[in-house]
Amino acid sequence: MPIDRRRLLLGSPFLLSGCVTRPAPDLSSQVPAQRPDMVEADYASIYAAIDGEPFPVPAVDLDEIEPQFLRREVSYRTPEPSGTVIVDPGERYAYLVGERGRAIRYGIGVGKEEGFNFRGAATIARKAQWPRWTPTPDMIRREPQRYGRYVGGLAGGTGNPLGPRALYLYRDGRDTLYRLHGTVEPWTIGTMVSSGCIRLLNQDILDLYRRAPVGSRVVVLGSTVGTAV
Question: What is the pLDDT confidence band of residue 196, given thresholds at 50, 70 and 90?
C-alpha cells in the first residue's frame, strides 16, 4: 500500500504526536537503498535535538543509523488490538498497533544473546521519566567488575543507559525486569547488544511513551506473527 510521504512525515498526528557499550560503526562505505517513504529532511526534523527536558536530548546522527530502523508508519496485519505494542526481536522492530491494519514501526536494539530476551505477553505497569537504572542480579553475577559498582543504582540523567524514558513490563502483577527504554548509544539500534531490555532511539521512546498509557498490552514475539510492509 503506497504511503503519502507528506501526510506521513509532516502532517500525520499518528506519527509525530541493562545496557552495553559499543563503538559507533563506520557506515561511510555503505550506500543503503532509498525507500520511497523516506525523506531525509523530514527525518532530520523528527530526530532533531529536543528542548524542554531536564537533561539534553541531542539530535540523532542519521549517518549512524541504518535507514530501515528509522520510525515510520507501515501496513501491519496482526490479530492484536489497536494500542498493543508488539516487539519483534528477530526483525529488530517494535510496532505500536493502530487502526485499519496500520502501525508505527520503531527500530530497536535487543539482547545480545537469545537467552537474555523475554518472550510472551506483558503489561506496561509503570512508566518513568529519566528513570533510575539498576543492573539486574544476573547482570552483576555475569560481570561483577563491570556492574557491581552500580548495585545501588544510577540516577537518571545524561549518562544513564536508560535514556529519557522507560516503560516497565509486568506479568501477573510481577516485574519481569524487562523494559523498553532509550539509549545513550543510538548507533546500536538494529543490533543484538543489550542485556535483555529493548532500547529505542531517544526520540522514539519519547514518542512511544506519549502514546502507550499504563495498562497497555505488550507482546514480545518468539517468532513473527504479524506481517509488515
Answer: low
Residue 106 grid coordinates: 520503531
Contacts of 198 (CB under 8 A, 6+ apart): 87, 89, 94, 108, 109, 110, 178, 179, 180, 181, 220
Whether residue 122 contacts residue 138, with contact meaning beta carbons closer than 8 Å, is answered with no
Number of domains in the chain: 1
Q: Which residue of the set 181, 202, 204, 212 is catalytic?
A: 181
Q: What is the pLDDT of residue 152?
A: 72
Is position 181 annotated as part of the catalytic site? yes
- Residue 27 covered by a domain: no
Residue 114 lies in a domain: yes
pLDDT digits (tens, 9 = 90+) for 72-96: 999 999 999 999 999 999 999 999 9
Q: Is 216 one of the catalytic residues?
A: no
**Which of 46, 94, 197, 198 is the catalytic position?**
197
